[in-house]
Please model this.
Amino acid sequence: MLYELRVYEAAPGKLPALHARFTDHTLRLFARHGITPVGFWTTYIGPSNMQLTYLLRWENLAEREQRWAAFSTDPEWLQARAESERDGPLTTRIENSILAPTEYSPMT
Model:
């Protein structure tokens, strides 16, 4: 089992629109493509309150590559993304890490 940690830094004033895109489109499209979210967080205390952090669960890298490729080329996703970014990008930076739990992790 692998986990993907994604951290999005929202463009100024765009965090509500980023949340709306996840609520209105992304989560449904994740489900369609078999992408399993573990959780979503905003930064309560930390260096930036303009961050959306989320964690995805994968069986292996091959599954991630296949499902992420299908999601990222889905015409409905491309349209939702384009419409949500009509007035400019919603993010200024995206960080991405693939994590493997240790043998003593409660997640194994």
Notes: The two ends are 8 Å apart (CA to CA). The chain has a mean pLDDT of 96.
